[in-house]
Design a protein that fits this description.
This protein has three helices and seven strands, in the order E-H-H-E-E-E-E-E-E-H. The protein is of the alpha+beta class.
């Protein structure tokens, strides 16, 4: 299956990046691609075999879905791997560049319903929203 790669540089220490990526109270503040969406609820059992769920909803109430999966590998401050409920896999690397800078790299298997550029754009937009939230809080 074809994969897509997105990444960003977050001007925050890897420990803060990890916390903001994985804590439900933070996930609900950044896990959406555009300002007309929100993530009103998140759950996260961050361990191998643990499950996660982030509800993503249009603010106008027109559509909502749960982004869900099971963790297959977790290495503190370094990587997270999981399988989404549709069977696709995702790998996230957290690379400490220096004491105040972290590179976040996501590699995910494409789904077949939407064009590659649309998928890349959506995941990159969420990643940039994460960067902005983490750097400003």
């Amino acid at each position: 299956m074809k994969t897509i790669h997105v990444e960003t540089i977050v001007h925050s220490p890897v420990e803060k990046v990890w916390e903001y990526w994985n804590t439900p109270a933070h996930i609900t503040r950044w896990a959406f691609a555009t300002d007309d969406w929100e993530a009103p609820h998140a759950e996260n059992d961050l361990r191998e075999g643990g499950k996660f769920m982030t509800r993503m909803s249009a603010k106008d109430g027109s559509v909502s879905f749960d982004f869900t999966g099971v963790y297959t590998d977790v290495v503190l401050y370094e990587k997270i791997e999981y399988t989404m409920d549709d069977g696709r896999t995702v790998s996230i690397a957290f690379e400490k560049i220096d004491e105040s800078t972290t590179k976040v790299i996501e590699v995910f298997e494409m789904e077949s319903e939407n064009p590659e550029e649309m998928q890349r754009g959506g995941w990159q937009a969420i990643l940039e929203n994460f960067k902005k939230y983490t750097e400003t809080n």
